[in-house]
Hints:
Elements: H1 11-25, H2 28-39, H3 41-59, H4 70-92, H5 97-107, H6 110-122, H7 130-145, H8 153-162, H9 164-187, H10 194-212, H11 221-247, H12 250-256, H13 259-271, H14 278-302
Helix pairs in contact: 1-11, 1-12, 2-3, 2-11, 2-13, 3-4, 3-10, 3-11, 4-5, 4-9, 4-10, 5-9, 5-13, 6-9, 6-14, 7-14, 12-14, 13-14
Amino acid sequence: MLLRYLPQLTPNSATLIGLSAVFLWSSNVGLMRSVSQSFGAVAGAALIYTLATLILFFTIGLPKLKDVPKRYLFWGSLLFIAYELCFALAIGYAQNSRQAIEVGMINYLWPTFTLLFAILLNNVKANGLIVPGCAAAMIGIFLVLAAEIGLNMAQVWANLLSNPLSYSLAFAAAILWGLYCAVTVRTSQGHNVVTLFFALVAVVLWIKYAFIGAPSLNFTVDNSLILLLAAAGLGLGYGTWNIGILSGNMTLLAGASYFTPVLSAVFAAFFLSTSLSWIFWQGVLCVTLGAVLCWLATRQKSN
Length: 303
């Protein structure tokens, strides 16, 4: 229960713990896609969040709800559940591994949205770099969706229409996570209730699983191991991230998270045995550049 007994963290220590989430999250797309292929989109997500809840319980524990601001419990849980459902189902409903990586990359617009909402809702100051930063991130997503032929809007649109549900869920997820981070900083008063939020996500997913009449679950040694890895990466990632944004330097964490798209694409491509074109990697780099510029826009003003 190491993380549970770290109440007196210095801002620097909390920031370092938060940075570890970048590496843990980089495994999410590849592992979650593999789990969904074995158990289905809904059941796979439900299993991951159930195990991740147990991991968080034994590392962070449960908060004393009477001490948590009711405003944060309501808005934080609503945004967190909505985000996790959008993210997990976007990957699960992808038609193939390449598409799963693409929707995962759309989700990684969240560093840019996190900084935008920090500016809009938490009075973080920014300079003119925020504009090219946002533009670069969006151009990067267009390149990711353009397949092999470069920045062609007709191809991007055709790609989106091939699976509008997954792509829409991924974009919604990026916005929701940015909002969640802003609301957490603004209303949580330092309380970490991520374990409760994960439990609520698992409950919602199991309810959905019960209503869709999905087939029974078939466990093997291989898919059980991947399930455990996915749950560990997800649960510990969010546990360490919440510690970082509650007690560390949120602007620095959001800026450092620009490494996540690159690392995630590398891991997912390797784990899912998927070849990615140079156009795709240009898109990844543009998303990264956009996050860096947005981070610099806020950091220069804060110095």
